[in-house]
Amino acid sequence: MSKQPPAAAGTPIDVVWLKKDVRLHDHGPLLSIAQSNRQCIILYLYEPDQLSEKTVHGSHVAFVNEGLVDLDLRLSSGNSEPTATNSDIQGDIYEHKFQCITVCRAGAAFTLRSIHKQRPINQILCHMESSHLKSFARDKAVRRWCRHEQIPIKEMNQTGVTRCLSDRDDFRKNFNKFLGQPIHATPTKMQLDGLGARLVKIEGDGIELHGRCHSPMKPSDMQEIASEFRCDRVQRQYGGETKAMEYFRSFLSSRGANYSTGISSPNSSWTTGSRLSPYLTWGHISLRYVIVITKQKQEELRAAKKKAPSTPSPWLRSLASFQSRMHWRSHFIQKLESQPSLEKQDQCLAFSHLRRQPDDFNEKYFEAWCQGRTGFPFVDACMRSLIHTGWLNFRMRAMLVSFATYNLWLDWKKIAGHLARLFLDYEPGIHYPQLQMQAGTTGINAMRVYNVTKQGKDQDPSGVFIKKYVPELATVPDEYIHEPHKMPASLQKKCGVVIGDGKGGNEKKSKGIFQTQQSTTILSTKECICYPSPIVDEKITAKSAKDKLSAVRKQDSTKREAEQVYLKHGSRRTNGDRDGAKPKALNSASKRVKVDSAQQSLMKSWSQSQNGGASNEKQEQAKLPAGQTSDCASDVKLLHSTENPVSASSISKSPLITSLFSRQNNANKHAEQNEWNCKACTFLNDKPLGLVCTMCGSVRA
Question: What average pLDDT does this structure show over 252-275?
């Protein structure tokens, strides 16, 4: 096809199309035009088709707007380094007039076509995006138009995800190659000044663009977003590259020291966590920049440790854990990039019928879960925390999904939109694979059924978090804060709160699987506040759900399908071979598919002992120090006895047990910091003998 002549004469221009990359550092497209002499347009679009996506919330738009204003101020002032001077824009960003960024409320292909008709486009520069299906469709439409007009479009990588990845085993190699590339330099002040002089003045150059926005558009004015979702979250994080850098600096200088120990609790994770997730999602900070700078910090710490090896420090372990999560992030985004349909269908189709039968979806349970009115205080506190702030630590997010999909038997697709709107850091590539993993529909991961009451007692023992976000329970004593429905009626009255029907003392019994006649509305009187009883029986519903999923997992057809899922999304070959490692779901004949040499020694000894054979006794006798004897079978019976409880001291005196654990302890000494990296998602696990990754559920390779 011959090249179509441009509809308008003039010097060709470059277009930098901003999407989820509103920043100045490590930005290949902006650096390219800053180093060029060609006229250009820096374009950002409020796209109606993207805004109409069910996952969009007003807080997302507001966060993006703050980033746009921050970047526009830096471009117009020639300020190449983010500083705190932009903090004064927080109260009046909607009064800001864009000077360098051209912002329109229109579709991407439509706007680019309009520009090209008035000024020929030389090339389009942008970043590759791995997002929801509407985003994929938009990008395809733009690329199709570019091919028709023979306009080069350069989509640069900013996440390490590979488009059209033919073999999942190549992901790690490609990702490391991405990290090995130099960080794009931040344009200097001289380059920014030159860029400002070459920016096309839309009105001044006679270009007319539909939906032109001279100031940021308020979410409340966006008709594409459902009216109930156009609001903001007043306690959320503030957007922009300047704020992102502030969070990152404080994390590396002080907050990150206790990352590995504090990330699991909703109380400590607010400060020990990096809090970079929304900035990574919306591109206000570069993933590669975070990983590279963190690596430099790790090298500094290792050098310092060599000089003072006796000085204890949690920093190296914490940063190693943080780095593993940064790698894990792209690992999951690659899944959606390789299979966009994960947004709509189960990864393993054998589970497609579960939770989707006519009577499975319970609207009342769904509403109670969405509002934080389930009668499980820790669950409700986590949900309300999200409603207020838009952020929650990973473990508690997983618990919310587990409770919804197992205890309430809700379809993960039904809860996906609600959670996406709550998460300020909503990243489709993480969102949908994780929802399916937590719901147990991947076919290759272990079931994750959280005991929400136990989680509350472990992570918030005194109920500090609960009382902050569930003020109805502020006066409840600590001993009842996790199960207030067990409070006697007299104590409820004293605390000024009525739980459920107010009988107290767990007098109300469950009928079948689900509790009945429970209040899920907020009630109050002059004397007391009402809080609902648990809407389901936690243990019964968990068992029922696990039984249903287990029945599907055991089917041969499920295992065959799970094998294909594993090869597509979970395979990791070392030296061209997976070394026989498979997910537990694909090898149900053995609960422990692959173990290291130390584990083999201990497990082999125990399994042989349980058989009680004479040869086993001789083998174990040969391993004991000279002069010691042991009845192998009786020693193992000692360990597993349930009829006659034994003390720890009696176990420790057993020669066989002493020998076994002595060998095991010696093997453990060779493990570096007792940690190992998952070959599938690169997460750093802190359980040296763990057989399954605590993050992704893959079997240890």
Answer: 96
Q: Report the distance separating Cα 71 and Cα 100, nearest Å.
A: 9
- 400, two tokens: 């919310």
Q: Are strands 121-127 and 153-156 parallel, antiparallel or unpaired?
A: parallel
- Give the burial string for 568-596 (b: 16+ CB within 10 Å, else e): bbbbbbeeeebeebbbbbbbeeeeebbbe
The end-to-end CA distance of the chain, in Å, is: 51
CB-based contacts of 409-414 (< 8 A; 24+ apart in sequence): 409/355, 409/360, 409/362, 409/541, 409/544, 409/545, 410/355, 410/361, 410/362, 410/365, 410/366, 410/369, 411/355, 411/356, 411/360, 411/361, 412/355, 412/436, 412/438, 412/439, 412/441, 413/344, 414/361, 414/366
> Per-residue pLDDT for 643 more than 90?
no
* Average pLDDT of the segment spanning 540-560: 95
Mean pLDDT (the chain, rounded): 83
Measure Cα distances from 548 to 262, 355, 544 in Å.
Answer: 35, 10, 6
User: Is residue 272 very low, low, confident or very high in pLDDT (cuts 50, 70, 90)?
Assistant: very high
The per-residue pLDDT for 507 is 41
Tokens of 358: 């006519």
* 599: pLDDT strictly greater than 90: no
Residues 439, 440, 441: CA angle, nearest 5 degrees:
100
> Which ranges of 312-423 would DSSP assign to H, the alpha helix?
315-338, 363-371, 377-389, 394-402, 412-422
Q: With the CA atoms of 396, 401, 405 and 410 taken in that order, what torsion angle do they form, in degrees rounded to the nearest 10?
A: 130
DSSP E strand boundaries for 241-299: none
Indicate if the pLDDT at residue 473 is higher than 70: yes
CA angle 516, 518, 523 (to 5 degrees): 165
Spell out the residues 6+ positions from residue 483 whose beta carbon is closer than 8 angstroms to its own: 453
Output the CA–CA distances (angstroms, integers) from residue 610 to 605, 643, 654, in the order listed.
Answer: 9, 17, 16
Nearest 5°: the CA angle 470, 473, 478 is 115
Question: On the CB side of 605, how many CA atoms lie within 13 Å of its CA?
Answer: 24
CA distances to 125, 287, 331, 428, 681 from 172, in Å: 26, 16, 8, 21, 9
How far apart are alpha carbons 278 and 289 in whole angstroms? 15
Task: Report the alpha-carbon distance of residue 241 to residue 283 in Å, rounded.
Answer: 8
**Per-residue tokens: 246:** 């502030």
Q: State the average pLDDT over residues 242-247.
A: 98
Residue type (1 letter), 58? G
Task: Provide mean pLDDT across the span 270-278.
Answer: 97
Average pLDDT over every residue of 80-87: 62
H/E segment holding residue 167: none
Is residue 629 predicted with pLDDT exceeding 90? no
Assign 572 a pLDDT band (cuts: 50, 70, 90): low
Q: For residue 574, what are its two tokens?
A: 């070392």
519: confidence class by pLDDT, cuts 50, 70, 90 = very low
Contact yes or no for 85/70 (Cβ under 8 A): no
Confidence band, pLDDT 50/70/90 cuts, at residue 547: very high
Cα 127 to Cα 28: distance, rounded to the nearest angstrom: 8
β-partners of residue 499 are 531
Residue with tokens 């009216």: 227
Beta strand 153-156 with 40-45 is unpaired
> Which tokens go with 333?
């985004």
Strand 121-127 and strand 101-104: the pairing is unpaired
Q: Are 204 and 119 in contact (CB under 8 A)?
A: no
